[in-house]
Amino acid sequence: xxxxWEYTAGWWTAHANLxxxxxxxxxxxxHPYSLINHCRWDRLPDIMPTLILGRLGIRRGLNxxxxxxxxxxRIVAMxxxxxxxxx
Length: 87
Description:
2 strands, mainly alpha, 3 helices
């Protein structure tokens, strides 16, 4: 799993301006996730065009590189987007 993360991480850096991605291993044995990728974009407009246009096949690379590698390695991404509450 970590090999695929390392292989595809460069695409996110180059095409989605992601510079703070960190792979985390779940602490409990038998956890349903093999790897948790913690990353952050400061503004939703920084990532949404990449995700939407990539899934539609308009922005090259997401489908052809990232998702193709995920599929070949039987990996499914489960993105969770959230906004931090202000104090």
